[in-house]
Amino acid sequence: MIRRLVESCRRHDRSLSDCREAIFAYELDDHSAAAARGSILAELTNLGIPPALATRLAEAWVRTADYLIDAPALPPVDFVIGNPPYIRLEDIPPQTAAIYRSMYSTMVGRADLYVAFFEAALGQLAPNGVCAFICADRWMLNQYGIELRRLVTSGYSVEAVVEMHNAAPFLTEVSAYPAVTILRRARQGPAVVASLDRPAEGPNGRMASALRSTREGKKTSLPTGLKATRLQGWFSGAEPWPCSSPERLSLLQDLESRFEPLESEKSGTRVGIGVATGADKIFITKNGDVAEASRILPLAMASDIADGELRWSGHYLVNPWEEEGLIKLQDYPRLRLYLEQNAEVLGKRHVARKNPVAWYRTIDRVNLPLCKQLKLYIADIKDRLNPVLDRGETYPHHNLYFIQSDVWDLEVLGGLLLSDIGQFFVESYGVRMRGGYLRFQAQYLRKIRTPQPADISRAQAKELTRAFRKRDRNAASEIALDIYGVKGLSEGA
Ligand SMILES: C[S@@+](CC[C@H](N)C(=O)[O-])C[C@H]1O[C@@H](n2cnc3c(N)ncnc32)[C@H](O)[C@@H]1O
Question: Residue 389: its pLDDT value, please?
Fold first, then answer.
């Protein structure tokens, strides 16, 4: 930046002393700020600037201050470039954390401090201004990034994301999933998503020009270790941005453009989660005699589907709901006795305190017809999607997702979800935590793209059913790839 500024002053015959406000650099730490001023001084002197002016400029440009506090009052700028700190909010003094949270509305949940740096930088950009950060990319996928994603998609354009988890861009080892992210205050245009698996080689600027060409849709040879893909547009709203692998992202976009989400207004398929009670010890029992038979529902728990088949463990849900709403206790003397014996615990729950008349309700209402409907169950996803069929025998507990459909033969759908394509969606939308755990939620299950049932031939449906029953992932994958018109899936994301 300094070199360019000096060169520009020379070209336009301006004095560098006019440029005191051309750069605002922030560093909280005294030593680091002094080191930065030292580098500036050395660079300016090297460029032939007299030491007195060089010292004044270094002093003016580098401020030992808190960027997050100052940013809202700084003038609009054309470029923000930075390597913001990664600090969990828990590791910041509570008072400071509260100030940051009150200033930066994207700092939600367990947001890391870098989220606030993005918001501060974006807020500072003049129209068409650009923010380039090297920073963790976890916010693109996870829950705490939700408001930052919404902010970006509402008024900025994502120009480039270069994932470099394996490129070791820092001198010290940092386990923080680094990426270079380039955002512009402009309407969204094409974007480039790239991944670099080793330190960049070749002349300065080669990487940047390869990325720029890719974004412009020009054919270009990429430097070794760089993979890049051009996207027509970007994601919308607050949805996750699964961009850690360019090839997989372009496949995802292709599938998203050719197939419909599993659940949409007109898909005839519903994804949901089982019942939360607020007091499992009372509402879940193995003793089916605690209430009238009509008030007792067989309940499926996550452990009941662990081996790929529903093996009901004998748990029941004590059900205080009928189709019209909460039951009247006087209509069910046994249930009433049982609930009244537990009234103290039940009454302490948040739902009960909010509405004392309904003190015996479960948190979620029970959707009675669901019990008798065929459905697929999916437990929290550890490694793979593992759908299991329930033939209308049980009601799901809250750690089970269910898929119920008016249009699908659920064993055919189960085969598709069991396949590598199902897994591909899980890996694209979910967040892989250390240890291979994928946090997957109903909202992502709904987004899984599927063909229309009518587009699957009878022979393919038969094969998928067979693969589903036998838990044969390879067979399921072979047919699924054929149905989706996909040649193969590369590993990893
Ligand atoms: C990841 S380091 C980057 C250091 C240096 N800029 C570089 O790129 O090598 C993040 C730096 O941000 C500084 N920092 C942390 N909180 C800050 C804040 N609120 N305002 C300004 N600087 C801050 C830290 O002292 C640390 O030096």
Answer: 97
SS (H, E, C) 350-418: HHHHHCHHHCCCCCCCCCHHHHHCEEEEEECCCCCCCCEEEECCCEEECCEEEEEECCCCHHHHHHHHH
Centre of ligand 1 to C-alpha 85, Å, is: 5
Condensed to tens digits (0 to 9), the pLDDT of residues 101-148 reads 999 999 998 889 999 999 999 999 999 999 999 999 989 988 899 999
pTM: predicted TM-score of the whole model, two decimal places:
0.72
Which of 47, 65, 83 terminates a domain? The answer is: 65
Specify the residue with its C-alpha closest to ligand 1, atom 18.
66
Q: Write down the pLDDT at residue 436.
A: 44
CA neighbor of 471 nearest in space, from 402, 422, 419, 435: 419
Ligand 1: distance of its center to the CA of 212 in Å?
Answer: 28
Residue nearest to atom 1 of ligand 1 (CA): 85
Q: How far is the CA of 138 from the centre of ligand 1 (A)?
A: 19
Closest ligand 1 atom, residue 29 Cα: 25
Banded pLDDT at 455 (limits 50, 70, 90): very high
Domain housing 423: 269-318+365-484
Residue of 23, 31, 32 to test ligand 1 pocket, by largest number of atoms within 8 Å of CB: 32
User: Is pLDDT at 86 greater than 80 in this prediction?
Assistant: yes
Give residue 88 CA to ligand 1 midpoint distance, Å. Answer: 14
Concatenated DSSP letters of 441-461:
-HHHHHH-EE--GGGS-HHHH
How many domains does the chain contain in total?
Answer: 3
Ligand 1 centroid to Cα of residue 105, in Å, is 21
Closest atom of ligand 1 to CA, residue 113:
16
> Confidence band (pLDDT; 50, 70, 90) for 174?
low
Residue 386, in any domain of the structure: yes
Q: Report the alpha-carbon distance of residue 276 to residue 74 in Å, rounded.
A: 48
CA 224 → CA 165, 202, 397, distances in Å? 16, 9, 50
